[in-house]
Design a protein that fits this description.
There is one protein chain. By secondary structure, the chain is of the alpha/beta class. The chain folds into 2 domains: about 270 residues, Leucine-rich repeat, LRR (right-handed beta-alpha superhelix), CATH 3.80.10; about 80 residues, no CATH class. The chain contains 15 helices and 11 strands. The chain has an 11-stranded mixed β-sheet. β1, α2 and β2 form a beta-alpha-beta unit.
Length: about 375
Protein backbone atom coordinates (compact mmCIF):
# COMPACT_ATOMS: atom_id res chain seq x y z
CA UNK A 1 0.00 0.00 0.00
CA UNK A 2 2.82 2.40 0.86
CA UNK A 3 4.44 1.86 -2.51
CA UNK A 4 1.24 2.95 -4.25
CA UNK A 5 0.34 5.94 -2.06
CA UNK A 6 3.77 7.46 -1.38
CA UNK A 7 4.42 8.51 -4.99
CA UNK A 8 1.42 10.83 -4.69
CA UNK A 9 2.70 12.56 -1.53
CA UNK A 10 3.67 15.70 -3.41
CA UNK A 11 3.84 17.80 -0.21
CA UNK A 12 6.33 15.47 1.53
CA UNK A 13 9.21 17.43 3.07
CA UNK A 14 10.91 14.75 5.23
CA UNK A 15 11.64 11.19 4.06
CA UNK A 16 13.11 8.53 6.36
CA UNK A 17 13.88 5.09 4.92
CA UNK A 18 15.19 2.41 7.26
CA UNK A 19 16.17 -1.17 6.49
CA UNK A 20 16.50 -3.50 9.47
CA UNK A 21 18.74 -5.85 7.53
CA UNK A 22 21.31 -4.76 5.01
CA UNK A 23 21.21 -6.27 1.57
CA UNK A 24 19.50 -5.63 -1.76
CA UNK A 25 16.67 -3.11 -1.80
CA UNK A 26 13.25 -4.59 -1.01
CA UNK A 27 10.95 -4.01 -3.95
CA UNK A 28 8.95 -1.18 -2.36
CA UNK A 29 12.14 0.66 -1.30
CA UNK A 30 13.52 0.27 -4.81
CA UNK A 31 10.28 1.67 -6.23
CA UNK A 32 10.63 4.76 -4.01
CA UNK A 33 14.30 5.35 -4.78
CA UNK A 34 13.98 4.69 -8.49
CA UNK A 35 10.57 6.08 -9.28
CA UNK A 36 9.36 8.66 -6.76
CA UNK A 37 9.76 12.40 -7.01
CA UNK A 38 8.89 14.71 -4.13
CA UNK A 39 9.00 18.33 -5.33
CA UNK A 40 9.19 19.77 -1.80
CA UNK A 41 11.58 17.27 -0.18
CA UNK A 42 13.96 19.01 2.27
CA UNK A 43 15.28 16.16 4.45
CA UNK A 44 16.45 12.72 3.29
CA UNK A 45 17.35 10.38 6.18
CA UNK A 46 18.41 7.14 4.53
CA UNK A 47 19.44 3.92 6.24
CA UNK A 48 19.62 2.01 2.98
CA UNK A 49 22.51 0.73 0.84
CA UNK A 50 24.46 3.64 -0.62
CA UNK A 51 24.39 2.82 -4.32
CA UNK A 52 24.15 4.56 -7.68
CA UNK A 53 20.38 4.47 -7.27
CA UNK A 54 20.64 6.25 -3.92
CA UNK A 55 22.64 9.08 -5.42
CA UNK A 56 20.39 9.26 -8.44
CA UNK A 57 17.47 9.80 -6.04
CA UNK A 58 19.36 12.50 -4.15
CA UNK A 59 20.39 14.29 -7.33
CA UNK A 60 16.79 14.31 -8.56
CA UNK A 61 15.94 16.29 -5.41
CA UNK A 62 19.05 18.47 -5.36
CA UNK A 63 17.15 21.74 -5.81
CA UNK A 64 15.12 21.35 -2.59
CA UNK A 65 17.23 19.23 -0.23
CA UNK A 66 18.51 21.02 2.88
CA UNK A 67 19.63 18.02 4.94
CA UNK A 68 21.06 14.65 3.85
CA UNK A 69 21.73 11.92 6.44
CA UNK A 70 23.27 8.69 5.15
CA UNK A 71 23.85 5.89 7.65
CA UNK A 72 27.57 5.00 7.52
CA UNK A 73 26.94 1.30 8.17
CA UNK A 74 25.12 1.11 4.83
CA UNK A 75 28.18 2.13 2.86
CA UNK A 76 29.86 -0.77 1.09
CA UNK A 77 32.63 1.17 -0.63
CA UNK A 78 33.36 1.49 -4.29
CA UNK A 79 34.11 4.39 -6.60
CA UNK A 80 31.14 3.45 -8.76
CA UNK A 81 28.53 5.22 -6.62
CA UNK A 82 29.88 8.58 -7.79
CA UNK A 83 29.90 9.92 -11.31
CA UNK A 84 33.07 11.98 -10.97
CA UNK A 85 32.43 13.78 -14.25
CA UNK A 86 29.09 15.27 -13.16
CA UNK A 87 29.54 18.41 -11.06
CA UNK A 88 26.03 18.57 -9.60
CA UNK A 89 25.02 21.48 -7.36
CA UNK A 90 22.90 21.15 -4.22
CA UNK A 91 22.12 24.86 -3.84
CA UNK A 92 20.15 24.68 -0.56
CA UNK A 93 21.99 21.87 1.26
CA UNK A 94 22.93 22.97 4.79
CA UNK A 95 23.66 19.65 6.58
CA UNK A 96 25.49 16.52 5.43
CA UNK A 97 26.06 13.42 7.58
CA UNK A 98 27.76 10.42 5.99
CA UNK A 99 30.66 7.98 6.07
CA UNK A 100 33.99 9.83 5.75
CA UNK A 101 34.64 8.30 2.32
CA UNK A 102 31.24 9.48 1.09
CA UNK A 103 31.59 12.92 2.70
CA UNK A 104 35.02 13.54 1.19
CA UNK A 105 33.93 12.62 -2.34
CA UNK A 106 30.62 14.47 -1.98
CA UNK A 107 32.52 17.67 -1.18
CA UNK A 108 34.86 17.18 -4.14
CA UNK A 109 32.18 16.21 -6.67
CA UNK A 110 29.07 18.15 -5.66
CA UNK A 111 28.79 21.88 -5.15
CA UNK A 112 27.21 22.84 -1.81
CA UNK A 113 27.42 26.65 -1.55
CA UNK A 114 25.29 26.82 1.63
CA UNK A 115 26.71 23.89 3.60
CA UNK A 116 26.92 24.85 7.28
CA UNK A 117 27.02 21.55 9.21
CA UNK A 118 29.26 18.62 8.29
CA UNK A 119 29.19 15.29 10.17
CA UNK A 120 31.63 12.75 8.72
CA UNK A 121 31.49 9.38 10.49
CA UNK A 122 34.63 7.27 10.43
CA UNK A 123 34.20 3.51 10.74
CA UNK A 124 37.65 2.37 9.65
CA UNK A 125 41.12 2.59 11.14
CA UNK A 126 42.70 4.75 8.45
CA UNK A 127 43.22 8.22 9.92
CA UNK A 128 43.88 9.68 6.48
CA UNK A 129 40.18 9.50 5.64
CA UNK A 130 39.42 12.05 8.37
CA UNK A 131 42.18 14.34 7.16
CA UNK A 132 40.92 14.06 3.58
CA UNK A 133 37.44 15.22 4.62
CA UNK A 134 38.85 18.21 6.51
CA UNK A 135 41.03 19.23 3.56
CA UNK A 136 38.13 18.82 1.14
CA UNK A 137 35.93 20.93 3.39
CA UNK A 138 38.57 23.66 3.51
CA UNK A 139 38.85 23.83 -0.27
CA UNK A 140 35.11 23.63 -1.00
CA UNK A 141 33.04 25.07 1.86
CA UNK A 142 35.42 26.93 4.19
CA UNK A 143 33.50 30.20 3.97
CA UNK A 144 30.07 28.73 4.78
CA UNK A 145 30.87 25.82 7.11
CA UNK A 146 30.23 26.78 10.73
CA UNK A 147 29.62 23.40 12.40
CA UNK A 148 31.78 20.27 12.22
CA UNK A 149 31.15 17.00 14.04
CA UNK A 150 33.78 14.27 13.76
CA UNK A 151 32.65 10.81 14.81
CA UNK A 152 35.85 8.82 15.10
CA UNK A 153 36.38 5.11 15.64
CA UNK A 154 39.94 4.21 16.50
CA UNK A 155 42.13 2.94 19.32
CA UNK A 156 43.76 6.31 19.94
CA UNK A 157 41.60 9.12 21.23
CA UNK A 158 41.58 12.79 20.33
CA UNK A 159 44.64 13.12 18.12
CA UNK A 160 46.45 16.43 18.30
CA UNK A 161 47.06 16.17 14.56
CA UNK A 162 43.32 16.14 13.84
CA UNK A 163 42.70 19.14 16.07
CA UNK A 164 45.53 21.12 14.53
CA UNK A 165 44.40 20.27 11.00
CA UNK A 166 40.85 21.38 11.80
CA UNK A 167 42.16 24.64 13.25
CA UNK A 168 44.42 25.31 10.27
CA UNK A 169 41.88 24.43 7.58
CA UNK A 170 38.53 25.52 9.06
CA UNK A 171 39.18 28.63 11.10
CA UNK A 172 35.60 29.93 10.66
CA UNK A 173 34.01 27.16 12.74
CA UNK A 174 31.63 28.23 15.49
CA UNK A 175 30.82 24.67 16.64
CA UNK A 176 33.11 21.64 16.87
CA UNK A 177 32.03 18.23 18.19
CA UNK A 178 34.33 15.22 18.43
CA UNK A 179 32.84 11.88 19.41
CA UNK A 180 35.14 8.93 20.09
CA UNK A 181 33.38 5.61 19.54
CA UNK A 182 36.17 3.06 20.16
CA UNK A 183 37.19 1.44 23.43
CA UNK A 184 39.76 3.59 25.25
CA UNK A 185 42.35 1.98 27.52
CA UNK A 186 43.84 5.02 29.28
CA UNK A 187 43.63 8.79 29.65
CA UNK A 188 46.45 9.00 27.08
CA UNK A 189 44.26 7.11 24.60
CA UNK A 190 41.46 9.57 25.23
CA UNK A 191 43.69 12.62 24.93
CA UNK A 192 43.19 13.71 28.54
CA UNK A 193 46.86 13.67 29.55
CA UNK A 194 48.49 17.09 29.97
CA UNK A 195 50.53 17.08 26.71
CA UNK A 196 47.37 16.23 24.74
CA UNK A 197 45.27 18.78 26.63
CA UNK A 198 47.90 21.43 25.91
CA UNK A 199 47.77 20.63 22.19
CA UNK A 200 43.98 20.77 22.27
CA UNK A 201 44.01 24.15 24.01
CA UNK A 202 46.46 25.51 21.44
CA UNK A 203 44.22 24.28 18.61
CA UNK A 204 41.12 25.86 20.17
CA UNK A 205 42.93 29.20 20.23
CA UNK A 206 43.36 28.88 16.47
CA UNK A 207 39.55 28.83 16.09
CA UNK A 208 38.73 32.43 17.07
CA UNK A 209 35.00 32.19 16.25
CA UNK A 210 34.38 28.93 18.12
CA UNK A 211 31.50 29.06 20.59
CA UNK A 212 30.73 25.36 21.14
CA UNK A 213 33.26 22.58 21.79
CA UNK A 214 31.90 19.14 22.71
CA UNK A 215 34.27 16.22 23.15
CA UNK A 216 32.68 12.92 24.13
CA UNK A 217 33.62 9.25 24.33
CA UNK A 218 31.26 6.28 24.16
CA UNK A 219 33.48 3.57 25.64
CA UNK A 220 35.79 4.61 28.44
CA UNK A 221 38.73 2.89 30.16
CA UNK A 222 37.65 0.52 32.97
CA UNK A 223 37.13 2.42 36.20
CA UNK A 224 37.49 5.81 34.55
CA UNK A 225 35.36 8.66 35.82
CA UNK A 226 35.58 12.38 36.40
CA UNK A 227 33.65 14.29 39.03
CA UNK A 228 32.28 17.78 38.53
CA UNK A 229 35.27 19.36 40.29
CA UNK A 230 37.66 17.81 37.77
CA UNK A 231 35.36 18.67 34.87
CA UNK A 232 35.24 22.33 35.92
CA UNK A 233 39.03 22.44 36.27
CA UNK A 234 39.61 20.78 32.89
CA UNK A 235 37.17 23.01 31.04
CA UNK A 236 38.39 26.19 32.73
CA UNK A 237 41.99 25.30 31.90
CA UNK A 238 41.20 24.37 28.29
CA UNK A 239 39.15 27.45 27.53
CA UNK A 240 40.31 30.36 29.68
CA UNK A 241 42.44 31.97 26.93
CA UNK A 242 39.51 31.68 24.48
CA UNK A 243 37.12 34.61 24.80
CA UNK A 244 34.09 33.41 22.79
CA UNK A 245 33.75 29.75 23.84
CA UNK A 246 30.50 29.52 25.79
CA UNK A 247 29.55 25.80 25.69
CA UNK A 248 32.00 23.00 26.50
CA UNK A 249 31.98 19.29 27.29
CA UNK A 250 34.75 16.77 28.01
CA UNK A 251 34.54 12.93 28.12
CA UNK A 252 32.22 11.51 30.80
CA UNK A 253 31.14 15.05 31.61
CA UNK A 254 28.08 17.23 31.52
CA UNK A 255 27.61 20.14 29.15
CA UNK A 256 28.94 23.29 30.83
CA UNK A 257 27.88 26.87 30.11
CA UNK A 258 30.23 29.77 30.58
CA UNK A 259 29.25 32.43 33.09
CA UNK A 260 32.49 34.45 33.21
CA UNK A 261 36.00 33.92 31.85
CA UNK A 262 36.85 31.42 34.59
CA UNK A 263 33.41 30.42 35.92
CA UNK A 264 31.35 27.64 34.32
CA UNK A 265 28.03 26.15 35.43
CA UNK A 266 26.94 22.61 34.50
CA UNK A 267 23.63 21.93 32.80
CA UNK A 268 21.21 19.47 34.35
CA UNK A 269 20.65 16.15 32.60
CA UNK A 270 17.22 14.53 32.75
CA UNK A 271 16.35 16.43 35.92
CA UNK A 272 18.97 14.47 37.88
CA UNK A 273 19.71 17.45 40.09
CA UNK A 274 23.39 16.72 40.76
CA UNK A 275 24.58 19.70 38.70
CA UNK A 276 22.53 22.08 40.82
CA UNK A 277 23.62 20.29 44.01
CA UNK A 278 27.28 20.69 43.08
CA UNK A 279 26.89 24.44 42.55
CA UNK A 280 24.78 24.90 45.68
CA UNK A 281 27.22 22.94 47.86
CA UNK A 282 30.18 24.99 46.69
CA UNK A 283 28.29 28.24 47.18
CA UNK A 284 27.11 27.50 50.71
CA UNK A 285 30.61 26.40 51.72
CA UNK A 286 32.02 29.30 49.70
CA UNK A 287 34.45 27.02 47.90
CA UNK A 288 33.04 27.73 44.44
CA UNK A 289 35.93 28.24 41.99
CA UNK A 290 36.69 31.96 41.52
CA UNK A 291 33.80 32.92 43.82
CA UNK A 292 34.62 36.63 43.86
CA UNK A 293 34.52 36.81 40.07
CA UNK A 294 31.13 35.10 40.09
CA UNK A 295 29.69 37.52 42.67
CA UNK A 296 31.05 40.53 40.80
CA UNK A 297 29.35 39.18 37.69
CA UNK A 298 25.89 38.94 39.26
CA UNK A 299 26.46 42.32 40.91
CA UNK A 300 26.87 43.90 37.51
CA UNK A 301 23.54 42.53 36.31
CA UNK A 302 21.34 42.93 39.37
CA UNK A 303 22.64 44.66 42.42
CA UNK A 304 22.85 48.24 41.25
CA UNK A 305 19.03 48.15 41.27
CA UNK A 306 18.67 46.48 44.68
CA UNK A 307 20.63 47.83 47.66
CA UNK A 308 19.36 45.14 50.04
CA UNK A 309 20.64 42.37 47.79
CA UNK A 310 23.90 44.25 47.38
CA UNK A 311 24.43 44.31 51.15
CA UNK A 312 23.72 40.58 51.42
CA UNK A 313 26.21 39.73 48.67
CA UNK A 314 28.86 41.89 50.34
CA UNK A 315 28.30 40.03 53.60
CA UNK A 316 28.41 36.71 51.76
CA UNK A 317 31.70 37.63 50.10
CA UNK A 318 33.44 38.62 53.34
CA UNK A 319 33.32 34.98 54.47
CA UNK A 320 32.78 35.73 58.16
CA UNK A 321 32.70 32.51 60.20
CA UNK A 322 30.07 33.96 62.54
CA UNK A 323 27.82 34.59 59.56
CA UNK A 324 28.08 30.96 58.52
CA UNK A 325 27.54 29.54 62.01
CA UNK A 326 24.68 31.76 63.16
CA UNK A 327 22.82 32.29 59.90
CA UNK A 328 23.00 28.99 58.05
CA UNK A 329 19.54 29.41 56.54
CA UNK A 330 20.45 32.89 55.33
CA UNK A 331 23.58 31.52 53.67
CA UNK A 332 21.48 28.92 51.88
CA UNK A 333 18.96 31.57 50.80
CA UNK A 334 21.76 33.72 49.44
CA UNK A 335 23.27 30.77 47.58
CA UNK A 336 19.86 30.07 46.09
CA UNK A 337 19.58 33.71 45.00
CA UNK A 338 22.97 33.54 43.30
CA UNK A 339 21.93 30.35 41.50
CA UNK A 340 18.70 32.05 40.43
CA UNK A 341 20.53 35.08 39.09
CA UNK A 342 23.02 32.98 37.09
CA UNK A 343 20.20 30.81 35.74
CA UNK A 344 18.29 33.90 34.59
CA UNK A 345 21.29 35.60 33.00
CA UNK A 346 22.63 32.52 31.20
CA UNK A 347 19.29 30.76 30.58
CA UNK A 348 20.33 27.64 32.50
CA UNK A 349 17.49 25.34 33.48
CA UNK A 350 17.63 24.50 37.16
CA UNK A 351 14.22 23.47 38.47
CA UNK A 352 15.40 23.94 42.03
CA UNK A 353 15.84 27.71 41.60
CA UNK A 354 12.06 28.01 41.50
CA UNK A 355 12.19 27.30 45.23
CA UNK A 356 14.27 30.40 45.87
CA UNK A 357 12.32 32.78 48.14
CA UNK A 358 13.36 35.69 45.93
CA UNK A 359 13.12 34.01 42.51
CA UNK A 360 9.99 35.79 41.30
CA UNK A 361 11.31 39.17 42.42
CA UNK A 362 14.67 38.50 40.77
CA UNK A 363 13.03 37.42 37.53
CA UNK A 364 10.90 40.57 37.47
CA UNK A 365 13.97 42.69 38.22
CA UNK A 366 15.97 41.02 35.44
CA UNK A 367 13.27 41.22 32.78
CA UNK A 368 12.56 44.88 33.56
CA UNK A 369 16.13 45.97 32.83
Amino acid sequence: MLSTTLPHAVNLTVLTLYLIRLGPYPMFIASIVNGCDFPRLEVANLTVPVTKETFSFLKRHRLTLKKVLLDPMCYFGGQAVFDLSEKTEFPLLETLSAHTWIAERWLNVFSTPRLECLHPIWTSYDPNTVDDVIIAAQSRVENTLSSLKLELQRHSGLRAANMQLVALQLSNLTSLEIQLTSQMSSIEDMGLDMPSLTSTRDALLMLPKLRVFKWTADRLPPGFGSGLDLQHWTISWLTHPHKLLSVCQVPTGLVWLRVTQYVWFPEEVEDAGHAFSWCFRHLTSRTFPVLEELLNFVTGHFLQHDSMLSDRVSLFLRRQEQFVEDNCSEVEDMAMDIMSMVALIRSIRYKAVLQSPNYLRLRKLYTSQ
